[in-house]
Design the sequence.
């Protein structure tokens, strides 16, 4: 069989277990765009399935790979069925194109999206695999003929398998306590990976950009600096790159305005570790005329155990903090480690509310919110559902 350059996966048949996730949905879209036949399974409906129109997806029950399909398994479903780890497939995709891979504790989704957006705006026709929906790009994946832009993942060390032309390390901060014992170990891990890549951008060594961006916050000026440095290594620099970057309007669930009515604004943000939560709430503070209400869904019991005090301190930037139960799909429960551990650590002077479920959190936020307030929902899981419920329940 002859496979064309535009369809390097022509003739392949792939079944994705966990296809509704941020990562695997993007892999599915890129691989079908590159010629593969794609099907998949997930435990429930997700927002990322909206990007998979035309793909045959089984929802619920257990995965049942059709005969003749290669099985690709997300890290969230390891052990559920025999198959190839998704990290191996990503390494294969990176090997097929000149690639830019973005890693780091935070900012990698936005930085990768910035790079892909600018490449497209200047006519480079990139492909991309990004862990969030980018409205200006039409989704979380693209199948162009140019460079491949990828968001890597250090949480399971899989970024170490990738061999791009350009690597971006946005920052180094311990966030995955079950994988790395210390920040020093994480730094050593990134250093070893960087040594395998010809061109490396260290975001922490850069000054934030000074020109105007469409996305708010100091953290986004840092993300933009890293993106521009990578683009320059790719041969895209100067005023054209800056002008294009200035038009970038962001990624869904990155300080996204969900609704505003009755003088109350509701934003949703993916922030889930202390630094990210602090950045989101500082940005929100600039928009608050009265009180800032933070609603947080903790993610991963191990992270919650290690940094509950730091999470609480970040939430204290707000005037009121509402915390839900831990989203515990990634790891097993730990006795005594609940969302209450975070909430009880929030310093005095901040109004505190315990809301075990997402519905509880929405109802409490609505009860507290007054004209002039800003509500920000925070977390990896589905706090966007809280934001939608609050926005939908605002007084007319």
Sequence:
């Amino acid at each position: 069989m002859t496979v064309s350059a535009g369809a390097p996966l022509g003739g392949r048949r792939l079944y994705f277990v966990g296809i509704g996730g941020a990562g695997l949905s993007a892999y599915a879209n890129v691989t079908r765009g590159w010629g593969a036949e794609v099907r998949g399974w997930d435990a429930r409906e997700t927002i990322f399935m909206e990007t998979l129109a035309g793909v045959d997806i089984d929802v619920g029950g257990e995965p049942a790979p059709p005969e003749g399909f290669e099985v690709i398994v997300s890290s969230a479903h390891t052990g559920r069925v025999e198959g190839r780890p998704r990290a191996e497939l990503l390494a294969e995709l990176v090997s097929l194109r000149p690639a830019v891979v973005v890693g780091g504790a935070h900012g990698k989704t936005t930085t990768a999206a910035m790079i892909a957006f600018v490449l497209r705006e200047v006519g480079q026709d990139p492909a991309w695999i990004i862990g969030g929906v980018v409205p200006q790009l039409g989704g979380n994946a693209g199948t162009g003929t140019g460079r491949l832009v990828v968001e890597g993942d250090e949480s399971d060390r899989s970024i170490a398998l990738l061999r791009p032309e350009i690597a971006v390390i946005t920052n180094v901060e311990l966030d995955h306590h079950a994988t790395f014992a210390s920040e020093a170990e994480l730094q050593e891990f990134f250093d070893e990976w960087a040594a395998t890549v010809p061109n490396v951008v260290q975001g922490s060594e850069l000054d934030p950009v000074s020109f105007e961006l469409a996305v708010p916050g100091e953290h986004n000026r840092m993300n933009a600096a890293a993106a521009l440095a990578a683009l320059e290594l790719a041969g895209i620099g100067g005023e054209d790159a800056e002008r294009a970057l200035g038009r970038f309007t962001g990624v869904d669930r990155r300080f996204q305005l969900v609704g505003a009515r009755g003088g109350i604004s509701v934003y949703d943000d993916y922030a889930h570790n202390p630094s990210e939560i602090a950045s989101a709430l500082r940005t929100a503070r600039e928009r608050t005329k009265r009180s800032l209400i933070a609603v947080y869904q903790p993610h991963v019991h191990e992270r919650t155990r290690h940094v509950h005090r730091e999470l609480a301190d970040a939430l204290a930037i707000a005037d009121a903090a509402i915390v839900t139960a831990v989203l515990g799909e990634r790891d097993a429960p730990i006795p005594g480690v609940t969302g209450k551990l975070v909430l009880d650590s929030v310093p005095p002077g901040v109004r505190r509310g315990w809301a075990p479920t997402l519905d509880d959190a929405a109802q409490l936020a609505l009860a507290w919110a007054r004209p002039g307030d800003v509500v920000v929902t925070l977390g990896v899981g589905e706090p966007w559902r809280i934001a939608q419920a609050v926005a939908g329940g605002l007084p007319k």
